[in-house]
Description:
Blueprint: E1 15-18, H1 25-36, E2 45-50, H2 53-65, E3 72-76, H3 83-103
Parallel strand pairs: 1-2, 2-3
Amino acid sequence: MGDILFSTDRRPGDLFLEAAAGTGTMARAAAATLRFFGTDPAEYRWWLNDLDPLNSACCAVSAQLWRLGQHVTVSCGDALNDPRLLEEAVRERAERATAEQQARPVLYPTTTRPPFWPWQSVPPS
């Protein structure tokens, strides 16, 4: 099945979209075929979606196990009924995650070290 995906020319950076990915079996087959032809799957972009939240979670784990790279989006929604709504939801979630990460406090906001490190003895008070 993975060979079917490569009946046309694919170039690094192309997007593989699986609207009903399940746990990601087709993505695994595509990654195996890419590796067979000497290409790294991490050079491509992947969007794996499923309607079932458990399948989406399993698919996210599978994407890590199969080393699909950093350009992987795993989403949960009805992509077959209305793909534009799903695209908007993913964009909104990404913007929200970026804002939350930027608002997160820094443990040590200065460039100096704290007075002691955990592996050193704590000075007496």
